[in-house]
Amino acid sequence: MRQTKKVLAIAALTVATCWTSVSQAAFFSFPRALMLQLDRISFQEPTLPPIGHTLFCMRNPDECAVHGVDFRKRNIAMTPERLNELNTVNREVNRNITPQVYVGNLAMEPWIVSPAAGDCNDYAVTKRHALLAQGWPSRALLLSEVVVPDGEHHLVLVARMRDKDTGLDADLVLDNLNANLRPVGLTQYQWVRVESPSNPKFWSTVYVPSRLHTAMLAN
């Protein structure tokens, strides 16, 4: 038990240090049928949120409140209009915030909505803020901490959706490192922890099987 508490305490002090480049690749082009077959986020054990998120909630309580209560817990329908909203927000925020590495104490780094310059934390919370303002429910917009291939911690936004024709679900990633919307299984990231759909203040560890190699072969 002591070891578990120690691990959680260390995890809480791990704040996303973030890559800051933005890919100019074309909009996500993998076959839609393949996209919908990819595994979704699998929530594991409750864990402590990043300290940066706790401080963000203290300064911005409405950002961490439950929005759009739905007792059926239905996911947002994956319509062209909704996908366009995600794509537009992802690209506009990536364009409007100048990449900047935070040089202070990372454990106390403020997460800021719509700064002139910022890192991945600022991009992610700004995108979530913009989509909440457009009527998206909080349960469909989950901040998630990942580790990129070079070992740096990074923050992204995950949008949970459902295809109304097939009934299949897809979790799409909005990322300041990529202009594309990507299913979680088509990233090269190691997934660490994610906000709970039921309450944005709670986080859990997460598992996402990678389908990147399979997708490359199929495409």
Number of DSSP strand runs: 10
Report the order of strands and helices: HHEHEHEEHEEEEEEH
Overall morphology: globular
Structural class determined from secondary elements = alpha+beta
For the termini, the CA-CA separation is: 46 Å
Strand percent estimate: 15-25%
Classified by CATH, the class is: Alpha Beta
The rounded Rg comes to 16 Å
CATH architectural grouping: Roll
Q: What's the number of domains?
A: 1
What's the mean pLDDT score? 81
Helix content: 25-40%
Please summarize the sheet with the most strands.
8 strands, mixed
How many helix segments?
6
Per the CATH scheme, the topology name is C8orf32 fold
Residue windows where pLDDT falls under 50 for at least 5 positions: 1-17, 20-30, 213-219
What does this structure look like?
By secondary structure, the protein is an alpha+beta fold. It has one domain: C8orf32 fold (Roll). It has helices at residues 2-13, 32-37, 51-59, 80-96, 120-133, 212-218; strands spanning 42-47, 76-77, 98-99, 117-118, 141-147, 153-162, 169-175, 178-183, 190-195, 203-207. Strands 1, 2, 5, 6, 7, 8, 9 and 10 form an eight-stranded mixed β-sheet that branches. Strands 3-4 form a two-stranded parallel ribbon. A hairpin with a 7-residue loop joins β9 (190-195) and β10 (203-207). The protein is globular and about 50 Å long. The relative contact order is 0.24. Mean pLDDT is 81; it is low at 1-17, 20-30 and 213-219.
